[in-house]
Amino acid sequence: MHALHFLHPILHVMHDSLRRIDLNLLLVFDALYRHRSVVSAAEELCLSSSACSHAISRLRSALGDELFVRLGN
Questions:
Q1: pLDDT tens-digit profile of 51-65?
Q2: Residue 21 in contact with residue 62, Cβ under 8 Å?
Q3: Confidence (pTM)
Q4: CA angle 47, 65, 45 (to 5 degrees)
Q5: Are residues 36 and 30 in contact, defined by beta-carbon separation less than 8 angstroms?
Q6: Could you give the C-alpha distances from 21 to 17, 26, 33, 68, 73, in angstroms and in order?
Q7: Can you tell me the distance from the alpha carbon of 29 to that of 53, in angstroms, rounded to the nearest whole number?
Q8: Exposed, middle or buried, 52 (CB in 10 Å: 0-12/13-18/19+)?
Q9: Ramachandran category for residue 56: left, alpha or beta (phi over 0 → left; psi -120 to 50 → alpha)
Q10: If we measure between CA atoms, which residue out of 55, 62, 57 comes closest to residue 16?
Q11: Which of 23, 45, 63, 68 is exposed most, by the fewest CB atoms within 10 A?
Q12: Is 11 inside a domain boundary?
């Protein structure tokens, strides 16, 4: 129980950060993860490739992570 009391401030900050994320961005993440292609993910979600790319950019910024990194071709 003492460990939870210690972590409460940290968890509260994490919760606030997660609460600000647009959950629709997770759908874009999922589609891109499965298809490995912005064009295919965008088609599945009925978005333009540009809108899909911008959504991933917003998620990268929100999470502070590159998420997907192209290696080679």
A1: 999 999 999 988 888
A2: yes
A3: 0.70
A4: 15
A5: no
A6: 7, 9, 18, 18, 31
A7: 10
A8: buried
A9: alpha
A10: 62
A11: 23
A12: no
Residue ranges of the alpha helices (H) in 1-73?
2-19, 24-35, 38-45, 49-63
Count of the separate structural domains present in the chain: 1
Please, how many CA atoms are within 13 Å of residue 42, restricted to the half-sphere of its CB? 13
User: CA geometry: angle at 7 spanning 2 and 65, to 5°?
Assistant: 155
Q: For 69, phi and psi rounded to 5 degrees?
A: -125, 125
Domain range spanning residue 32?
22-73
DSSP one-letter code for 59: H
pLDDT tens track for 15-73 = 666 677 888 999 999 999 999 999 999 999 999 999 999 999 999 988 888 888 877 76
Which tokens go with 17? 């950060």
